[in-house]
Each structure stands twice: as structure tokens, then as C-alpha cells.
């Protein structure tokens, strides 16, 4: 009976002492906890929110579409902004484009800047343009326009092209689908065309 009383009293005391001990430990943790320094917080990217609201932009934009003759056109950029004047379309910097036609040909476009003209359904490239075709031609010019719904690429000003036949200079160059045929495309130089023939060794 005495052992039972001692055991009961011990359990009773433990029920009181243990919760008190837990409270003491918790209080100690809070008292000695290190004060948080806001400067030690994880740094976030420094973004000027007001500037972004004034000039909204999108990084790494991509346009992809299929022309009515089955060619796939993809254009990517470094940064894009909506048009300032009417809000339609967008302008972008450091553009790279790829046109893949159903016949297996591939044409790559590189430009310093460009914009999408929603009214005319065209992508307008500027800032120095380089066009490289899988047929071995590389054409350089100042500006380029590419239709968004058809295979139609035009360099309207002076162009210089290097290819299998040599070096060609012309007033303009155009890549289009050949009329009346299926899956055939034409690369045409127009205006004052000059060819420096360089036969393969």
C-alpha cells in the first residue's frame, strides 16, 4: 500500500513538474533566440516596378505559326515590348527566326531588332539582317519583311549574297512559293544584279 501511495504521488508531481519544465525550456528558447536581421534575408532581383509599369515588356518572346502553304515559321527574341502608338503588335530586340518549308528546306533569319505589324500580318526585321538558307546561300541586308501567313520573305534594299555560285549583289531579294507548283520555292534577286562567279575547286 505504501509503494502504491509513493507511486501515485510521484505520478501526480510529474504531471505538474513536466509541463512547468516544458514552459521553462520554451521561454528560454525565446529569450536567447537571435534577433532576425532583415538585411540577411534572401536577396531578390532588383526590378524597378515603376519602370515595368510604365514600359511593360516580356523576356524571351517566341512567335510560332504555320503558313497557308505548310511552312513553319518560328521567331524568338531577347525582349519584346507592346507597340507604343496603337498598342497593336509588338517590337523586339535580337531576333532569330527559322522558316522550314514542306520540301525540307530551312532558312534562318538573324536581326538586331524587329516588330510585328498586325495590320499587314508581317514580321518586319531591321538593324542588320542575315538570311542563311540550307541551299548554301547567305544573304545580308538592312531590313527584311516576312509574311506571317505565307512563305514570302523580302529584303527590299541593297543585298549581298554569298553562295555556291559566288558573290551576288542586288537591289533586293525575295523568297516565295513558286506559283502553280506544290512544294517548290524561288529565291530571286532583283534590280541591278551582279554576280562574281567563283567556281568550286
From TrEMBL:
Domain of life from the UniProt record: Bacteria
Stretches that traverse the bilayer: 12-33
Keywords associated with the record: Membrane, Transmembrane, Transmembrane helix
Protein name per its UniProtKB record: LPS export ABC transporter periplasmic protein LptC
Amino acid at each position: 500500500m505504501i509503494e502504491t501511495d509513493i507511486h501515485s504521488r510521484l505520478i501526480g508531481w510529474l504531471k505538474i513538474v513536466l509541463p512547468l519544465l516544458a514552459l521553462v525550456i520554451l521561454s528560454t528558447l525565446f529569450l536567447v533566440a537571435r534577433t532576425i536581421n532583415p538585411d540577411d534575408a534572401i536577396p531578390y532581383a532588383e526590378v524597378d516596378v515603376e519602370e515595368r509599369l510604365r514600359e511593360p515588356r516580356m523576356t524571351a518572346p517566341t512567335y510560332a505559326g504555320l503558313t497557308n502553304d505548310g511552312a513553319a515559321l518560328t521567331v524568338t527574341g531577347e525582349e519584346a515590348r507592346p507597340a507604343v502608338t496603337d498598342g497593336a503588335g509588338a517590337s523586339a530586340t535580337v531576333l532569330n527566326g527559322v522558316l522550314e518549308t514542306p520540301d525540307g528546306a530551312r532558312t534562318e533569319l538573324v536581326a538586331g531588332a524587329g516588330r510585328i505589324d498586325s495590320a499587314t500580318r508581317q514580321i518586319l526585321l531591321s538593324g542588320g539582317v542575315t538570311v542563311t538558307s540550307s541551299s548554301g546561300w547567305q544573304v545580308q541586308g538592312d531590313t527584311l519583311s516576312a509574311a506571317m501567313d505565307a512563305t514570302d520573305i523580302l529584303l527590299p534594299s541593297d543585298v549581298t549574297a554569298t553562295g555556291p555560285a559566288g558573290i551576288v549583289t542586288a537591289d533586293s531579294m525575295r523568297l516565295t512559293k513558286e506559283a502553280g507548283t506544290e512544294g517548290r520555292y524561288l529565291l530571286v534577286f532583283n534590280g541591278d544584279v551582279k554576280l562574281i562567279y567563283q567556281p568550286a575547286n
